[in-house]
User: Fold this.
Amino acid sequence: MAFNPANNPTPFGVFDDDTGFQSEADNMVTFVKRKLGDDILSVELTQKQIWGNLEESLFEYGSILNQYQTKSQLMEFMGMPAAGELDDSGQEIDHSQKFPRSNLEYLTRFAEPYAAEAGVGGSYDVISGSIELVSGKQDYSLNSDLLGTEKDSAGNLLPLFEGSQNKNPKTRLKINEVFHYSPQAAYRFFDTTSAVNYLNNEMSFESFTPETIFYVLPVFEDILRASQLDLSNRVRRSNYSYKVQGTSLRIYPAPTSESAKRIFVSVRTHNNPVDTGHEDETINGVSNMSNIPFGNIQFSKINSIGHQWIRQMCLALSKEQLGLIRSKFSKIPIPGQDLTLNGTELVTQGREDKKDLITQLKEMLDSMTYDKLIETQALRAENMQKQLKFIPMPNGKAVFMG
Amino acid sequence: MSRLFITKREIDFISDITKEVIKDVVGQRIFYYPVSIVKTQVHDVYEEAVNKIFETPIEIDALVEFSPEEVATNIFGHEEIYKLDVFIQHRDLLDKKIKCKEGDFFSYGSIFFEVLTATFINNVFGQTEHYTGIKLSGKQARKGQINMPALGPTSEQYSDVAAVQEEFVQQRGIATDSAGDPTGDTRELTEKTGVPLTGPAGVKVYDESDGTTDGNSDSAFYGDGE
Assistant:
């Protein structure tokens, strides 16, 4: 019986349609049976058992290879569509045996929290609410007095962290901004009648004045001057300020009936790391070895080096399998005596062969991870430099002293 | 061992291994001569048959436990008497529909034996319906009891063609041998694992039919020359 018309020739049937695998399977029966001595004495293995072993060998080879590719390429695929997802043509995504372009997604993702703390980027939620000021009351709880936009049945605004206004877990808040100042620096900045502004402008006019003098200033000059104006206001004028005390916000000065009725506060919360405020499909993408889209490697796409390993592994598996069959009984009763079969030895040999093959493959692949290749290249370059030192410089290409 | 672990498949496996040892490795055989009940005339008074008529001899693969001859001395001089124990696989007998019984005869080499006892030997892992085999205990037949030409191999001291077996060919569960004659050998596993890749192996232990005149004994081992 040939492999092709056979009914369910292998347990998983993953490679059954691969024509290269089909012809290899037929040849493997001859190879394995001959190696185990079937020409002389029976080898109690069926074709399907041998085909199953061939399939397992291919699985083993692909798995080990993909493990090492994962070592080399996981960073490139982090966040990309994971195993099991379909591509545009409806096929399951498979990036095994590909050489992807490198990227820094992994690095930038891990740098995001630091960038957020420094205020130069990152990914986090900022939510804002308001506090209704009460005359004479300076302290307001951020948990209960900071109100959002959602209302209860009576029409009252709910605290910011109640209802469905904030999906992030209740935890520490980081106050982002308290809108308790008038943007006075800006007013003064644009107030052309202000003497301070003139002073800050070294007694000249700027481009925003209605005058006819225009000149170009660097941006930092504007920023520095705005900071100077802010500082001036804080030091010299009556101070609108706040202070965080535990979970409360203390407002300065104490509100009076003439004060604004409401101040606005924006806060930052810890993001739910898997449910951010913005759309981010990469969260559900590749995260580790279990979902990197490395599929089974087809036999036809493996070179002769791999083919030979697979054949040897199939033989080792068959040897072990035959041993297990023959060692079911330690002795078989035959007429007049008992017969001892060589099952135990076959099992031992098969397992040793299998172990040796796996060790050999792993050692080879260990030396071929992308990190190791770079190391090897660097060493080669270094050694080349050393060798070049011994090559005499041709006349006219070097300066000779003495 | 319990029946939980020994099912029909295990029994078939054991049977096939046994057949392999007997038929494909050891290669010993006897020629069995059943007494024809129909053709033999039994004495009316003694209820014994002085002249026995035999059916066509049957070649049976067996394990033979050879014992040296016993020498008895009496008033007529010395007498050498051979005894032999032969073990035959039970299932092989069933396959070939052969029944061995006391009083029949068999030959091994050039000597004919009368079956004194034909007993079942141990059953397979305690299962009463499966016997490993039958043991035939034979005693050298007296002259005149059976007058048949001995079928070879007999001994290399003889010069007739079949005295030495020149070729041994396995059976491997294949229905017919290379000459197209039925082997009567059936094996359950052959149907599952397939026939041997190169057919039954054989060995020509003493082959001078290759046309060489070097005077040496040649051998072709397992189809090397093919």
